[in-house]
């Protein structure tokens, strides 16, 4: 395997559980450091089964939730408001309703004017500059819903409406979120790549064999929107947490010890 220039700290753990717990400890440590310097910390969360162990472990950490503002990074357009597949609902069930956040800001995929909703959420993000981003990597390398056809490393927008590509939609079926491909919405709202990269600390949690190729691409492919997650290599403070399966194609030399 060739040399890869990357600023990212890459750690591999023996199980998904160990991976999630380690990521939660790292995020809690970063939040604690920030809260010693500022009154409030703003965090963006990803909604996906890949985040389950991390989110559960995060609730067990010693975090002053009353000083945390929470955002999520993407949302389907047009799902019923109470659909469990909705990313806001996913995070509400697993995290937002389980800790006393200062505020939780939801993206509304059922807004009657999606352009206005993008503007509203953009204004919120500008008013609350993001400190920490907790994210994953999709099977197609996407970050949030920035699939290869729409990912833009120099995007002038902060939040936008996107069409989801076929690999992304199939992943939602593979993950058990939808029974049929036809049931997966074709349109979504997403924070853009530059919006995510503005976070002062990025914590990327990526388990399972299904993500092994995407993880490999992240660190061995040329920096390109064709492989959206390659942008992580340019961030000054990014950490990627893997399990044995997702790290299966990486050269051990890339990995930091646990």
Features:
258 residues, alpha/beta, seven-stranded parallel beta sheet, three-stranded antiparallel beta sheet, 7 helices
Q: Structural class given helices, strands, pairing?
A: alpha/beta
If helices are DSSP runs of H or I spanning 4 or more residues, what is the number of helices? Answer: 7
Strand order within the widest sheet? 1-10-9-6-2-3-5
Order of helices and strands: EHEHEEHEHEEHEHEHE
Q: Give the overall shape.
A: globular
> Overall pLDDT, averaged?
95
Strand content: 15-25%
**Helical content, roughly?**
25-40%
Number of strands: 10
The biggest sheet, with number of strands, parallel, antiparallel or mixed sense and barrel status, is: 7 strands, parallel
Terminal-residue CA separation: 22 Å
Radius of gyration: 17 Å
- Residue stretches low in confidence (pLDDT < 50, at least 5 long) are none
Give an account of the 3D structure.
- The chain has 258 residues and is of the alpha/beta class.
- The protein contains seven helices and ten strands.
- It has helices at residues 16-35, 52-58, 87-96, 114-127, 166-174, 193-197, 212-220, and strands spanning 9-13, 41-45, 68-72, 74-76, 103-105, 132-135, 159-163, 187-191, 201-206, 238-243.
- A seven-stranded parallel β-sheet has the order 1-10-9-6-2-3-5, sandwiched between helices. Strands 4-8-7 form a three-stranded antiparallel β-sheet.
- Helix 1 crosses helix 2 (52-58).
- The protein starts with 8 loop residues before the first strand and ends in a 15-residue tail after the last strand.
- The model has no long low-confidence stretch (mean pLDDT 95).
């Amino acid at each position: 395997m060739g040399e890869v220039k990357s600023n990212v700290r890459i750690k591999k753990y023996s199980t998904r559980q160990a991976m999630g717990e380690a990521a939660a400890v790292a995020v809690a440590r970063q939040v604690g450091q920030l809260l010693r310097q500022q009154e409030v910390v703003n965090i963006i969360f990803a909604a996906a089964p890949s985040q389950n162990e991390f989110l559960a472990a995060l609730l067990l950490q010693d975090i002053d939730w009353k000083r945390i503002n929470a955002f999520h990074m993407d949302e389907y357009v047009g799902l019923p408001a109470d659909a469990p597949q909705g990313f806001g609902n996913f995070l509400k069930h697993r995290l937002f309703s389980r800790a006393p956040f200062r505020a939780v800001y939801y993206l509304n995929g059922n807004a009657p004017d999606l352009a206005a909703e993008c503007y509203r959420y953009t204004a919120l993000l500008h008013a609350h500059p993001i400190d920490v981003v907790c994210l994953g990597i999709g099977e197609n390398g996407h970050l949030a819903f920035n699939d290869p056809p729409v990912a833009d490393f120099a995007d002038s927008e902060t939040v936008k409406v996107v069409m989801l590509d076929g690999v992304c939609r199939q992943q939602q079926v593979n993950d058990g979120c939808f029974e049929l491909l036809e049931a997966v919405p074709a349109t979504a709202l997403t924070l853009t790549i530059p919006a995510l990269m503005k976070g002062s600390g990025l914590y990327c949690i990526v388990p399972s064999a299904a993500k092994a190729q995407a993880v490999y691409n992240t660190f061995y492919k040329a920096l390109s929107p064709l492989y959206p997650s390659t942008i992580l290599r340019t961030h000054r403070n990014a950490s990627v947490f893997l399990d044995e399966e997702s790290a299966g194609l990486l050269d051990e030399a890339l990995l930091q010890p646990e």
